[in-house]
Amino acid sequence: MRAWSRDVKKRLPRPITTAFRHKTAQRRTWRVNLGAMSAICALCFSQVPQGIAGPLPMLDAESRQQWQAVGRVNGAGFRNTSGCSGTLVAPDLVLTAAHCVTSDGRLWSERHFLAGWFRGEFTAHRVSKDIQIHPLYALTTGAPKFAYDIAMIRLLEPIERALLPPVDLLPRNAVSGSTGLLLGYQNTRPHALSGAAGCPRKPLRASKWVIYGCEVISGTSGGAVMVETQTGWKLGAVIVARQGAAGEALAVPVNDWIRDAVKEAQKREDLRK
């Protein structure tokens, strides 16, 4: 722990997002021609890669279908090559990183969530109604700030469960497991979901974040760390930064602030019925 602390003083974990580009929103879906699809399929993986070295690889079609609740978080427009990732945790709520929705300490006025985004196609597109960041994010500096680098985007219109079920949170007392499945949209490949399973979990003593031993790069901020349990996959943490020379993922585990926000969203859903 002491050695890691000294390393933090030399090089703090770095947020893995770049500035958003502001463009006029495009309100149409682009179609991918068959030739392009053939080229894409030639690069597909037969399953979610295990224990990879280097940045997260692109998922194959079957894996993308399973994780459509993970999407891109953009400014205006669909063509952005810089942005963040986010995960649908309730019909009208997206979990992402706080630095993805702020600039110089101020909230962005509007974000777009594109669920299941893949080369111009998407399962659902919604605009933000309200954005909330963890209350301690703006009050904390240095390395401890990463523990609060989380935000909730409330959507103007809910995404119906029949269209896209949200992911479930890891229960408070559940075992996190020794590995995680990392998912996100990297800015080197912003129009396709990337991911890797079997990323070793490296908890840190007296810390409110955790390291996962797979490399992440810009754009993966706000991405999901999924944990396999006896009752299926659950969201265990949110990717917020990369740490050290290897660029390993630094993630904030699901906490009470996240759980409380999801409970409030469930109340809103009940009122809509």
From TrEMBL:
GO terms for molecular function: serine-type endopeptidase activity. It comes from the Bacteria. It holds the Pfam family Trypsin. Residues 52-263 form the Peptidase S1 domain. One of its GO terms (biological process) is proteolysis. This is Serine protease-like protein. Gene3D superfamilies: Trypsin-like serine proteases (2.40.10.10). InterPro entries: CLIP_Serine_Protease, Peptidase_S1_PA, Peptidase_S1_PA_chymotrypsin, Peptidase_S1A, Trypsin_dom, TRYPSIN_HIS.
